[in-house]
């Protein structure tokens, strides 16, 4: 029976270790089978966008080519881990074309066993291993999907624990102590896993195309699906994912564990350690020889392998469930130790199977056989966990007790368990449509997160997009300075340091300095024979007048150096007299001591995003506006336009909402409009002078509309400055006409161009500038 | 007789062109023969530091290998041109090892003709040309050196002049008009050159090793030198640098000029256009076929070829002389036109020769033969120039009239002429020692300008050094943004943009961003296995205390995040109890909400300048100090130390003067000293706590003292950040001991390291960091 070790608890209190106790590292791995629009297993290849299956640390395939595995790095908090998994789900979902992630651990409608595609790994060892598994277990069984919950205690905590009486008195070496801690927790988890299976199981129903033998045993729920009356998790049942016959491996110590596993492999009962489908594994750093490394390095973390995909939640698990599992693991640490012989293991297996077949109401098998029921024991566990929380976690007490209360309710009322809810929901529709609807709903939610990297929303949008693209193709990232959007991207041996998405090693320092300095940019462009608006600055009328002969046949603009509202500006179109010229300067000098003369180029401004030898996207920005429909008022049209999920506030979205503010009202008034006016159908009403996105402007993609002649000019300008990544701003008179000597003009070259505006424009398609940066940094993504 | 063209002057006044009239572009070319310490012609090769003789646009050889030619670019002002020539002289002088620039147009003591080394150009055409010249004129004559004064009117001025009645009425095309203007000035200059030769001639005496025939004609001045009684310029005499027999080429028009020269070449009277030793040449852009280009492009500038090197001035000419020549050229433009037939040319030659042999007092040969003397005509010229100044240059009138007055004095009193002064000075010593003393004096002045690029003193010292090094090896430079120290360096096809000397294309943007961010730098170094001081920041005592086990066996420093005067800092050396640890944090938390814990590394801080794969220099900075001599007071010692020309004020010198200020006085007082104390011999008295150069600290070179193990670490650190050029700051416990695991520590990596401190340290040698940057940008400088 569970029972807290109060001596240990006292040590923790005495050494002020309760805060450290709850620290740890969390990781999730999960599989989802891909299905087509109709919910049938997708037999298409793993999307190429995810790169090489063996290299991508985040997105891989599992047994089947149709089974995507998503792996989070380990994080210091459940929150981060949860959100990274959500981001992975978003990234994967976005890439699936007409396919969806099946949200259940139980496979969807399956073809014949041999038609299920085994993952093609292009690696003889991996391919051979999968072929052997297919033979041994059948392909259908391998399609059962689930979640692995990985956990390690905080290293500093364990070291401090070792310093207390609990540790160094009994263990000579820290490593020995640490192994003992993890094996203890593993033993307890194995013993009490029935409770976690009860509380997390969420796959009570399965499709009738599943393994015949299992389908035959079950009862039909609807014409196409089957269940066993009390079963909450097919995956954890005898029809689930377990070794052919029970294997008993000692969890008493590292030595015994490694010894027993080695024996089983030698006896060819296991193909490799990987085939040891224990519900709980002790794991070490990844390597070629897992057992050797385990001995050498010691246990690094625990892997809980029996958690179902929960279709009630987008990523298959809720944050609360993750927190409960964490509390339960801590409880397993602080519980008194109990022996765990082969007999105990068999009892644990028995309890496991009984939970599956009879639910929580059955009796608990134990040496004492004191007639305790599972329900009663479960409630004792909850009680002791409550005590543990009260003693050690005063700060988070309320939140934790709330979680425990909810789990207690599930124990007392089995209709509240996940499995019961899922089954009841299925009964209201069908196994297929229930899960397919969920799949499509979650896919939609992911699409709405397109421009956002969940868990990294504090970063600039451009960086969020770049990191998502990196994760997608398996490039690892590390935050170097989060506030500065400074990251390290790693693929194999290659490290790339990137700040704000576009500040990379691809551009040299001097190139950036050229772009940063507008005077120098102009000189460099000129030097490379590229036309920039000619211009001069004058401090006196006399000086200005001496230049008349140079400009008399040109279109020019004469303007004060600083000007507002266009005051003091004169534009001449080729024909003007010396007197006109003088007057224009006289006017301009009334507004500023310095007057500028520049060649005048009419037209609209376009942003060319140049990357490498390519114009990746071209954008034109339009001031905040609405288009009338003859029915709604301007105010209504604004509110409606603001509903676009791409529009938000505070630069967290690709577009900003149009404000209903004073500036807009003033602008309307100046143009004889008001909020209540109803514009005619098709009439465009502007609400701002400037075209900034930050004041609700629209970004409109023109990449396909603008002739190559302009694109080539933009590339030339970038090359003149030596730039690999830059934003070239150009005035173009008329995009219907090819570039000539005088119908365009460069405004400036920018060295840190935003990329999200080209990926999520108001109008136009995603130009994938994020992917292009990665192509330039790491080479194109070819599988 | 000279006579101003008042019609033209009125046009200039009417069109407000008087300001533009004085604009123009100025260039100087000059030769100096190299001599050894004893004033004998140096027969060593042209220094390799100046790169390929044919490629270097600034520093070349002329006829002889011993004859250095220095060429300024053209500038908009006399001042810039003058100063650039001074800089060239500084650069060349600094590179000459035990040799000096002979400051006279007349050669020094010469060996036999055949022993004079002809310049080796590694170019068959160039080599052959020089061999032919040697045969035709003798090598000694070719060693006569001088100054070419290049001038062009402002292009905009000429265009505006063309728009007036002076121009477009008579000439259909602007180019035609422009050519006519330059030919007019050239004709007048040739006619009146006798006056300029009188006012600029400065080579009245020559060595008796000069051409025998000439020596025989002269009178001995001292045992080793010779003169002709009234001769002021040997170079302009019949013993000077002129064609074998007089050649008459028409200056009436471009067509006639080109025609006549072509004829002379066809008739083999000239080897090439280059051999046409006319005192005034019309020139165009440089090219393969000068005459063709002259016709095609038109005249670009005038070259006055008859100016002597003036030993009275460091660079061989004074700014006043340059200004007078400019005024004279403008006068030649505004003077009435006169015919210039072959007869006129002969008369001009006659006047030229007569000036040389008889001085200014002789009669002037003219068609009219009205008995005018040269003196009288010269005075008329000055008078008319005064009138010209008064009419057209009201702003600069006083300065110009002053210059004209001084020249007038020379006309009236021939003993005030340069030649007379030089001869008189020579008579007080000797031809040899007078010029050699001057040579050595000017070399010393150049050495004192070592760290300074004359004319560019507004730039940072590092940039001044880099540009001087560039000029030395013939890399052209262009200021892109002077305020920002942003330059373009060009060699052949290669362009390199450099800001502040060390911001170049050699470093990638991401590398700079890494260095700029101290947190990221530390992470990157750690990632590459490089030791940085471990450290943590704490916001609470509890948090801090939990780290005790990690540090209990380390040397650490616990300090408030911000601290002054070392308050709140505790340093532990390995052995400390948990109580000590806690107390240290408690103290630190009294001063700041954030407390830092860092590994403690004792020692001194050194700056490693890493460039490429090399540590170029290592510097240690010492606070402002003086060393006692048992005689002088601290104040006297400071004043004495401040006399070092490397010490100045306001960062215009490599070191700053030690202030006799309050801070220093307070520091002395705190250390029981005062300004009037007399320190013992060898006693070091510090005047500041900090070691900043800006407060008078000393920079001490340790490049040769510090073991390679530390240098390798610095290089490793630079490589980790990906840096090509950086300053690595390292704490070293004891430089007598090789680097171990724990006796050094990195402080930071800086991306814009000053280079001048390694070139001009207080103690130690010039580490030529400027040269190293150029090596990295353009490859090493091998001839």
UniProtKB/TrEMBL annotation, chains A, B:
In the N-terminal section; belongs to the glutamate--cysteine ligase type 1 family. Type 2 subfamily. Gene3D superfamilies: 3.30.590.20, ATP-grasp fold, A domain, ATP-grasp fold, B domain. It comes from the Bacteria. Pfam families: ATP-grasp_6, Glu_cys_ligase, RimK. Monomer. Its EC number is 6.3.2.2, 6.3.2.3. Residues 522-778 form the ATP-grasp domain. Its cofactor is Mg(2+); Mn(2+). InterPro entries: ATP-grasp, ATP-grasp_RimK-type, ATP_grasp_subdomain_1, Gln_synth/guanido_kin_cat_dom, Glu_cys_ligase, Glut_biosynth, Glut_cys_ligase, GshAB_ATP-grasp. The keyword NAD does not apply. Synthesizes glutathione from L-glutamate and L-cysteine via gamma-L-glutamyl-L-cysteine. It is an enzyme of class 6 (ligase). Keywords: ATP-binding, Glutathione biosynthesis, Ligase, Magnesium, Manganese, Metal-binding, Multifunctional enzyme, Nucleotide-binding. It catalyses: gamma-L-glutamyl-L-cysteine + glycine + ATP = glutathione + ADP + phosphate + H(+); L-cysteine + L-glutamate + ATP = gamma-L-glutamyl-L-cysteine + ADP + phosphate + H(+). The keyword Cytoplasm does not apply. This is Glutathione biosynthesis bifunctional protein GshAB. Residues 1-356 are annotated as: Glutamate--cysteine ligase. Pathway: Sulfur metabolism; glutathione biosynthesis; glutathione from L-cysteine and L-glutamate: step 2/2; Sulfur metabolism; glutathione biosynthesis; glutathione from L-cysteine and L-glutamate: step 1/2.
């Amino acid at each position: 029976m569970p029972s807290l070790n109060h001596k240990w608890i006292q040590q923790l209190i005495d050494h002020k270790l309760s805060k450290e106790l709850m620290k740890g590292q969390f990781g999730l791995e999960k599989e989802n089978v891909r299905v087509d629009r109709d919910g049938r297993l997708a037999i298409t290849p793993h999307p190429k966008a995810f790169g090489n299956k063996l290299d991508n640390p985040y997105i891989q395939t599992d047994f089947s080519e149709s089974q995507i595995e998503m792996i989070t790095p380990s994080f210091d908090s459940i929150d981060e881990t949860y959100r990274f998994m959500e981001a992975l789900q978003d990234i994967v979902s976005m890439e699936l074309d007409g396919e969806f992630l099946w949200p259940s651990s139980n496979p969807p409608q399956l073809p014949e066993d041999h038609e299920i595609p085994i993952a093609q790994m292009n690696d003889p060892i991996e391919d051979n291993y999968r072929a052997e598994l297919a033979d041994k277990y059948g392909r259908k069984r391998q399609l059962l999907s689930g979640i692995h919950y990985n956990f390690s205690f905080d290293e500093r905590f364990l070291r401090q624990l070792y310093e207390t009486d609990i540790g160094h008195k009994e263990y000579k070496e820290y490593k020995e102590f640490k192994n003992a801690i993890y094996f203890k927790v593993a033993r307890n988890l194995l013993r009490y896993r029935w409770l976690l299976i009860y509380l997390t199981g969420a796959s009570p129903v399965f499709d009738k195309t599943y393994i015949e033998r299992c389908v035959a045993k079950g009862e039909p729920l609807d014409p196409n699906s089957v269940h066993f009356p009390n079963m909450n998790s097919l995956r954890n049942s005898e029809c689930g994912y377990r070794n052919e016959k029970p294997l008993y491996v000692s969890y008493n110590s590292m030595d015994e564990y490694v010894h027993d596993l080695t024996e089983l492999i030698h006896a060819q009962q296991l193909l490799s350690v990987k085939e040891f489908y224990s519900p709980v594994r002790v794991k070490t750093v990844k390597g070629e020889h897992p057992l050797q490394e385990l001995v050498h390095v010691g246990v690094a973390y625990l892997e809980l392998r029996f958690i179902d995909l929960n279709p009630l939640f987008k990523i298959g698990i809720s944050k609360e469930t993750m927190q409960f599992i964490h509390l339960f693991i801590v409880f397993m640490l602080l519980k008194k130790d109990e022996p765990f012989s082969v007999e105990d293991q068999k009892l644990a297996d028995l309890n496991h199977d009984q939970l599956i077949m009879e639910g929580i109401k059955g009796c608990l098998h134990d040496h004492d056989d004191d007639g305790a029921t599972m329900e009663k024991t479960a409630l004792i566990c909850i009680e002791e966990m409550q005590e543990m929380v009260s003693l050690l976690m005063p700060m988070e007490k309320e939140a934790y007790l709330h979680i425990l209360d909810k789990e207690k309710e599930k124990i007392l009322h089995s209709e509240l368990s996940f499995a019961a809810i899922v089954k009841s929901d299925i009964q209201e529709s069908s196994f297929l449509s229930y899960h397919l609807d969920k799949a499509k709903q979650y896919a939609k939610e992911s699409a709405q997160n397109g421009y956002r990297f969940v868990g990294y929303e504090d970063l600039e949008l451009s960086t969020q997009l770049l990191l998502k693209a990196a994760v997608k193709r398996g490039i690892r990232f590390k935050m170097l300075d989060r506030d500065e959007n400074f990251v390290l991207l790693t693929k194999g041996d290659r490290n790339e340091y990137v700040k704000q998405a576009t500040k990379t090693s691809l551009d040299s320092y001097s190139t950036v300095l050229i772009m940063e300095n507008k005077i120098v940019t102009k000189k460099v462009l000129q030097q490379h024979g590229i036309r920039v608006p000619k211009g001069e600055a004058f401090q006196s009328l006399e000086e200005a007048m001496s230049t008349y002969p140079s400009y008399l046949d040109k279109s020019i603009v004469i303007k004060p150096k600083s000007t507002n509202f266009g005051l003091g500006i004169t534009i001449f179109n080729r024909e003007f007299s010396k007197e006109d010229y003088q007057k224009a300067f006289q006017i301009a000098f009334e507004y500023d001591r310095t007057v500028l003369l520049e060649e005048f180029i009419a037209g609209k401004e376009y942003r060319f995003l140049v990357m490498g030898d390519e114009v990746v996207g071209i954008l034109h920005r339009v001031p905040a506006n609405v288009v009338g429909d003859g029915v709604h008022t301007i105010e209504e049209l604004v509110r409606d336009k603001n509903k676009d999920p791409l529009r938000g506030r505070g630069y967290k979205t690709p577009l900003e909402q149009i404000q209903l503010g004073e500036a807009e009202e003033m602008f309307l008034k100046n143009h004889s409009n008001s909020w209540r006016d109803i514009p005619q159908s098709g009439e465009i009403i502007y609400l701002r002078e400037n075209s900034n996105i930050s004041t609700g402007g629209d970004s409109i993609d023109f990449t396909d509309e603008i002739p190559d002649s302009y694109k080539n000019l933009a590339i030339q300008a970038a090359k003149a400055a030596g730039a690999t990544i830059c934003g070239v701003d150009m005035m173009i008179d008329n995009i219907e006409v090819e570039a000539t000597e005088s119908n365009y003009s460069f405004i400036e070259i920018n060295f840190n161009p935003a990329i999200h505006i080209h990926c999520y424009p108001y109008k136009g398609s995603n130009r994938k500038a994020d992917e292009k940066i990665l192509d330039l940094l790491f080479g194109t993504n070819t599988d």
